[in-house]
Amino acid sequence: MKDSLLFIWVEGGSDARFFDSIIRPMFEKFYHRVEVRTYANLKREKFIKILESLRVIRADYIIAADIDTEPCVTAKKQYVRMKLQDIETDKVQVVIKEIESWYLAGLDDSSQKEMGLPFLKATDDITKEKFIELVPEKFDSRIDFMMEILKYFSPVVARSKNHSFDYFMAKYRLPAG
After folding, report:
1. What is the helix (H) or strand (E) element at residue 19, kind and residue range?
2. Which domain does 138 fall in, by range?
3. Residue 170 class from Cβ within 10 Å (0-12 exposed, 13-18 middle, 19+ buried)?
4. Is the pTM for the entire model greater than 0.70?
5. How many distinct structural domains can be found in the chain?
6. Distance CA 150, CA 152 (A)
7. Second label for 48, Cα 20 to 30 Å away, from 36, 113, 128, 140?
8. Would you say residue 159 lies in a domain?
C-alpha cells in the first residue's frame, strides 16, 4: 500500500486539526501520501464528484462524520450514503458523539489534572456543548484548549475511554503506541 494515496474527509476545522495531528501520522506508515480535507463547506454535488474521481484513480478514502442526532451508527451511515449516493458504507466512520469526545479521550489522569479538568473515565457522551463547558478559564478559546490537548494526547488512553475511537483504531489496525 505504500505507493497509494489516502484521503481522510472530515467535517470541519476541529476535526481536521485532530486527524491531521493524531491520525494522519499513523496512516503514513501504510500510505505514500495521506491528505486530510474538510467537506462541510463543499456543495454536495462537488463532493460527490470528488469521491467519484478518487474511485477512478483508485485512491482510498475515509469519511469521518459525527453521529449527531442519529440514533445509531448504522442510521448515520445510511444517512451519509443517502446524501452521497453511491458511497460504500464501510468508507464512513462515525465519531460518537462528536470529535470533542475524541480529543478528551486521549488525556490521562495527570494530564486532565494539569489542564484543570475533572476526571473523565469515558468520553462517549461528550458533545460540543459539554466540551465547551469543560474548557478551563485559563484558555483563550475552545481552539486554544484543543491545541493544548493535542500536546498531551495518548492514543492508548483514548482507546480505553472512547468506543468509537477504539473501533476506528482497530478497524484500520493503527498502532496506538
Report:
1. none
2. 101-152
3. exposed
4. yes
5. 2
6. 5
7. 128
8. no
